[in-house]
Amino acid sequence: MIFTFYLSRLLHNRVYDENGRSVGRLQDLVVDANALRPKVIAVQVGRGHDSMQIGFDAVTIEKVNAQYRITCKNVSPVILQMDGTFMLKKHVLDKQLIDIDGRKLVRVNDVRLAMLSGGTFVVAVDVGIEGLLRRLGVAKPVKRMLQPFDVSIPSNLLLWDEIETVHFGQRDIRLSKDLTKLATMHPSDLADILEDLDMKSQLDMFTSLDEETKLNVLEELESEAQVAVLEQMTVREAAAILEKLPSDEAADILDELENARASEILDAMHQESSDAIQTLLQYDEDSVGSIMTTDHLCFSETVEAQEVISSLRQLKPDGDRVYYLYVVDNSNRLIGTVSLRDLIIAEPTATLGSFTNQNIIFVHDTDDTDVLFDIVDKYNLLAVPVVDKTQQLVGVVTVNDVMHTLRRTRKGRF
């Protein structure tokens, strides 16, 4: 038979020995996080200013006259290895958690447990109003008061497998063994959640992500949150992650930092990355050059198709870098573009210049960003090449860059 109960119904209850004598009050439940399912392994009992932990194997919980009675067969304290354990009241109750399925931040008002033949396990958290009222001891009176009006208090239980912690505490406690849960969420949803956290929890959550997810989330964050996360990192950590971003994204973030901090981070980067970012930072804020990326793919018109395909296999570029391949002459002047389709169906020994589309749309690095909106909309382009006054290819603006700029412009107007 399964016996379920809420943590709030046990907290502060008296704990008795086998002879019915009170040995203190229940302060907390200790849980083994390394078990397949979080399992209660001890109770913490307090008496006056002292407290002790008693193994849960010696504890029985029964319901007597609508109240829970806690009895210990053996009141001898135990010493637990704290690694891999956490306490429900101290580390879970009132803490912020991520509802993985609902993709939102929630606060724990109560914890539901189930007593089975194999032990007592944490099965769910209560994030609803009912859990809060239960904590206050007024859930039943409120329900009775609302009953004549045919109004009920909705319960809101989240199964333990559907949540992920964002509050790690001093011992780096994780409430879930599955460290990849957050990575299953869309970066935009993760960014929304991260923006709602306090500064310490922001960094805790961000550093728990894998490298690829970190980059995607950082790009989705609002400027204020980007700055808040980077300000809490060391210079070396900030430099390492910004180097992996497209140069235009990294430049946008550094432009929001204090000049001294930005300079320190740039100095800690590899020279090539630092130079590319500093070039972008020199452009006026509303110019095309300020939002373009220098991470583009260009090839000489004399290169054969098979060589280009081999290079792409080695480079393994991101999807938004291969919308088009750009063809340049020996002076790096833009000649035209080649689509992936044309590249694949071309004869292996055909040079790029022999099937380059020279009827191209481009912008200058000093043009105002407003021209991009019209060009992308009119010609239905996924990316636009950027040239300088000598017609040399200096960068590319993707449709994602254009949309990001448009959102930023609209926010600035309101």
TrEMBL record:
CDD domains according to UniProt: CBS_pair_Mg_transporter
One GO cellular component term: membrane
Ranges where the CBS domain occurs: 292-354, 355-412
Transcription regulation as UniProt keyword: no
Alphabetical list of Gene3D superfamilies matching this protein: CBS-domain, MgtE N-terminal domain-like
Coiled-coil segments: none
Keyword set includes Chaperone: no
GO MF, one example: magnesium ion transmembrane transporter activity
InterPro entries referenced in this protein's UniProt entry, alphabetically: CBS_dom, CBS_dom_sf, Mg_transptr_MgtE_intracell_dom, MgtE_N_sf, MgtE_transporter, PRC-brl_dom, PRC_barrel-like_sf
SUPFAM superfamilies assigned: CBS-domain pair, MgtE N-terminal domain-like, PRC-barrel domain
SMART domains linked: CBS, MgtE_N
This protein's UniProt keywords: CBS domain
Record's protein name: Magnesium transporter MgtE
Protein species of origin: Alicyclobacillus ferrooxydans
